[in-house]
Write a structure and sequence with these properties.
Number of strands: 14
Order of helices and strands: HHEEEEEEEEEEEEEE
Largest sheet: 6 strands, antiparallel, barrel
Distance between the termini: 80 Å
Strand content: over 45%
Number of helices: 2
Oligomer: single chain
CATH architecture of the largest domain: Sandwich
Length: 189
Amino acid sequence: MKNRRLIKRLLLTVVVLALAATVVVFVGYRRVAQNPQIILSQIQKEADMHLNKIRQTATKNGIREWDMEAESATLVKEKQAIFLVKPNVEVFMNDGDNVRLTADKGTIYTNSNRLEVSGNVRANNRLYQFNTESLDYDPTARELRADKPVSVSSDSVTLKANSMAMNLETSITRFEGGVEGTISEDLQL
């Protein structure tokens, strides 16, 4: 009888502690998600350099891959990364129809020139505009990728999908997962 009560109390204690830990993690995550300055202040403590109003151009074999401007940038050598606030990026395509994008924050990985942007990502080219929560630029594949839901629109097309990959060499874009869209009868191919 006493063993049974002890086991019940022990299990109840474990459940309460697990619930409390879950609440603490959830509240902490929400606090950070709603106020990214908390993360930025922590990053700035680790920073090797902090710059306001930055402009950078990435080139490969003498060819510009992208231009970027940001409100501020924080270099953390240990993480081989530059953390950006309010990046505005122009990615150059072979056909000359460049992609311009804006976001709340971004990261440039200095060892590879890989670029990630997130938070209210808006991008457009001459024909289309797309929105998503995060977007990655892979310089090796010369590809823009959105692994979060994305919506694309133009005068004659609207499209939603769970992910997208745009090859900047071929100008071919691939959409996957839950693809839905509307094509106007006025679309000219």
